[in-house]
Q: What sequence folds into this?
């Protein structure tokens, strides 16, 4: 199989992750405009919970919306020519950090959706959580494979020792 065609097939998970991050950002922006916490389609947040946070609801939601846009940009960087020229190790560290954040949120959705811990997520949120983790892992794997060190390329030190 031609490497160019194999690489193109692996780009769709990053595009899907970018769309999900942008959807997250839009939902958070909608709630920021309403000065509410939560996410459209998710469990409700009580007024008592809203008052317990150190940031007001609108500020918290705008920051979350910005993180969604940033997440979408990082996802797109894994498949664009410019993004794939970024240093590999720092980019993999960023993706690992994002996996912890995304995996944590999705993990809560999964556990509460299937087992029920009192947050209010339903079974279909659990399915979405599984899908998000799978897409993110595939996006990261695709980036790592596309930017991996091929025989004949120089190693991290630039000495060419990897190609000997």
A:
């Amino acid at each position: 199989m031609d490497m160019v065609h194999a690489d193109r097939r692996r780009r769709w998970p990053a595009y899907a992750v970018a769309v999900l991050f942008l959807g997250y950002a839009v939902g958070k922006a909608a709630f920021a405009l309403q000065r509410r916490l939560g996410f459209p389609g998710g469990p409700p947040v009580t007024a008592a919970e809203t008052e317990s946070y150190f940031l007001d609801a609108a500020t918290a939601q705008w920051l979350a919306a910005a993180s969604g846009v940033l997440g979408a940009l990082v996802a797109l960087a894994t498949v664009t020519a410019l993004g794939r020229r970024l240093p590999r190790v720092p980019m993999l560290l960023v993706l690992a950090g994002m996996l912890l954040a995304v995996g944590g949120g999705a993990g809560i959705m999964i556990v509460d959706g299937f087992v029920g811990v009192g947050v209010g997520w339903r079974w279909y949120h659990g399915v979405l959580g599984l899908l998000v983790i799978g897409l993110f892992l595939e996006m990261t794997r695709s980036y790592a494979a596309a930017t991996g060190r091929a025989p004949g390329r120089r190693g991290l030190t630039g000495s060419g020792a990897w190609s000997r």
Q: What stands out?
A: The longest helix spans residues 88-114.
